[in-house]
Design brief:
CATH architecture of the largest domain: Sandwich
CATH topology of the largest domain: Immunoglobulin-like
CATH class of the largest domain: Mainly Beta
Shape: globular
Largest sheet: 7 strands, mixed
Number of strands: 21
Distance between the termini: 58 Å
Number of domains: 5
Structural class: alpha+beta
Helix content: 25-40%
Strand content: 15-25%
Radius of gyration: 26 Å
């Protein structure tokens, strides 16, 4: 026994006599002398995976655009620990019958009491020998994960469109499953669609339509259910590189191929940083504008909003972000939604490293500064407990935790660690971390133990981990990021504030990021005249860049300029379903005494939004709103 171990032993023995065993064990845990206890109970799932767990899914569905339903069966191979039952998550599904085994022996099933956000448990009676469970079911037209679009809501205006969005706990609204990020499954699927349409999934995909309307899919790598995804539409395929391609409606294919031309380079840069890409292909589907997120990292096929098509490749950091998820999130997944930051914080950090590798340090720094501004804005409006990295979402929809805290505070936590140990050691740690935990799930406690063992203790780093992970707000030792490009922008803004004159400002080479920083620094003191003159000078209200439009409209509303450009704002809010844009604009209307205007626009726009967005807007505009 080493001397320091002897001292620790004697210390614990004395404590045992003075405090009792329970307190000593608590202190021992705090001192990190052994692996943490697994806190893996998912409060957002009815499943009991320790009893019986799904391992593989065979999905067979018919997509009926007339009735707006998916119908068929979900056949599960299960891991059976001598169980008498297996429990699945469902929400708003029609369960017709359940059978067991190859012979499809009918079995008893019960559907439990509904709980808000969670839906209902489906409890199936099995035997100790049961290896297969087959559930026949259909969805309802208002399934929260599924967006059924009529032709007018698409780019081509000729054919309908469907897409699913499963994160966080919406997959259970279109597939009965054990809907927890802590459970990984493989899957294959047979999807039948109208012959003029093409289905694609987060799996191996066809590249062209066939004559039958029946398509086969396979996902060989185990993934959590929230990453099972389906899109159906009038789609075309265009290659970018050996492993990268685009799916989109025909009219969007050419601009998409131009916009995302660097995807293969991004993939190579990502592999150079943190190891081999393990998902075979990285393709992107550009969806209609009702998609509620910028992108969704569905394996092999990222779902992306058309709002990132700016014509100048200036918004492609989003593609780098979703690609980074192929390591952080898809390869190594948060075990519960309380641990969501393990997905997003790592991904934002990784995204910026990819962008730096391709476009330089100044470019990545601009992204980091804008991200920090987003973080500061969220800290101001959220309750303290919701500014912790590790969340307590008991009794809440996990969607509530998808704020810039997980993304930006998580990324800045990793940047702080990089500052402490140096980039070389940090990269070595992360590469080993991804390789060690690939195709596995992780809790925050397990990550902290791994971090302490492989970075903090190894390099004798002095850092308060608890302050970042379990504490509120932004710690004082946050990394300070600056960029010379924004220094120039600040000088221009200062000149305008002081002189109310634009002169012959040289801004012709400004990128989207510089314009965003410029707009965010404008004064908000009822400056309608300044806003009008800026609009006349730079034509912000008619920008073809959605990020610039959203930032400009928010400042315009706050400055009392909204009435001058209300048709532009209304057109934007009706035509775009991305929640990142909707929430600040509707909130700005509300906070500036124009709630009725916001509600009138929302009434027109709501049919074009996915349920992920309508849930947030309903809360903001119709039910008392988000904390101001």
């Amino acid at each position: 026994m080493r001397f320091n171990q002897l001292i620790l032993f004697l210390f614990l023995a004395i404590l045992l006599l003075q405090c009792g065993e329970e307190k000593v064990l608590a202190i021992k845990d705090k001192m990190n002398t052994g692996p943490p206890k697994n806190i893996r109970k998912d409060i957002h799932s009815f499943a009991e995976p320790e009893v019986a767990k799904a391992k593989h899914l065979e999905l067979n569905l018919l997509a009926d655009f007339d009735t707006k339903t998916l119908s068929g069966f979900a056949l599960f191979d299960i891991e059976n620990n001598q169980a008498d039952k297996i429990i699945f998550d469902t929400r708003n599904l029609n369960i017709e019958k359940v059978t067991l085994g190859e012979n499809e022996t009918p079995t008893i099933f019960t559907i439990g009491e509904e709980k808000e956000f969670l839906g209902k448990p489906l409890e199936v009676v099995i035997t100790h020998e049961t290896q297969k469970v087959k559930i026949y079911y259909s969805t309802n037209p208002d399934a929260a994960a599924v967006d059924w679009l009529n032709p007018q809501q698409t780019a081509g205006k000729k054919h309908p469109f469907l897409f699913t969005q499963g994160q966080a706990i919406l997959t259970r609204t279109w597939i009965p499953c054990q809907d927890s990020p802590g459970i990984r499954i493989t899957y294959n699927a047979t999807i039948k669609v109208p012959k003029e349409l093409l289905p694609v999934m987060s799996a191996s995909n066809p590249t062209e339509k066939n004559n039958t309307g029946v398509y086969q899919f396979e996902m060989r790598q185990p993934i959590p259910p929230y990453l099972i995804a389906l899109a159906i539409g009038d789609l075309e395929y265009g290659e970018i590189g050996e492993r990268t391609a685009i799916y989109s409606e025909p009219s969007l294919l050419k601009p998409s191929l131009y916009e995302f031309a660097d995807m293969e380079k991004m993939l190579i840069a990502a592999e150079d940083l943190y190891g081999k890409y393990l998902w075979d292909r990285y393709d992107v589907i550009v969806l209609p504008p009702s998609f509620p997120f910028g992108g969704m990292e569905n394996p092999r096929l990222t779902f992306a909003t058309p709002t990132i098509i700016a014509g100048d490749r200036s918004l492609t950091a989003l593609i780098a972000h979703e690609m980074a998820h192929s390591w952080s999130g898809n390869l190594v997944t948060n075990a519960t939604w309380n641990d969501f930051w393990l997905n997003e914080g790592f991904t934002v950090y990784f995204e910026r490293r990819i962008m730096e590798a391709l476009y330089g340090e100044e470019y990545a720094n601009m992204l980091a500064v804008l991200g920090f501004q987003d973080l500061e804005a969220d800290v101001k409006i959220l309750d303290d407990k919701d500014t912790h990295l590790f969340l307590d979402l008991e009794g809440r929809d996990p969607d509530d935790g998808m704020t810039d805290i997980a993304y930006e505070k998580g990324a800045y936590f990793l940047m702080m660690l990089e500052d402490k140990v140096g980039r070389g050691k940090m990269d070595g740690f992360l590469k080993t971390y991804f390789d060690t935990h690939r195709f596995k799930t992780l809790t925050t406690e397990e990550f902290i133990y791994y971090l302490n063992k492989n970075l903090i203790d190894k390099y004798q780093v002095e850092v308060d981990i608890d302050e970042w992970i379990y504490g509120p707000g932004i710690p004082e030792n946050v990394t300070k990021v600056t960029t010379e490009k924004f220094v120039v922008v600040n000088k221009v803004v200062a000149f305008i504030k002081e002189n109310y004159d634009f002169g012959d400002l040289e801004v012709s080479d400004w990128t989207t990021h510089e314009w965003l920083h410029f707009i965010r620094q404008l004064p908000i003191v009822d400056e309608k005249d300044l806003m009008k003159r800026l609009d006349n000078k730079f034509n912000f209200s008619n920008s073809g860049n959605s990020e610039v439009l959203a930032a400009w409209f928010e400042v315009a509303i706050k400055n009392g300029y909204a009435n001058n450009i209300l048709p532009n704002i209304e057109e934007f809010l009706i035509g775009v379903g991305r929640r990142k844009f909707l929430t600040p604009l509707y909130r700005a209307f509300k906070e500036n005494g124009q709630l009725e205007i916001a509600q009138n626009i929302y009434k027109k726009a709501k049919p074009n939004y996915h349920s992920v967005s309508t849930q947030t807007m309903d809360k903001l505009l119709l039910k008392g709103g988000i904390k101001d």
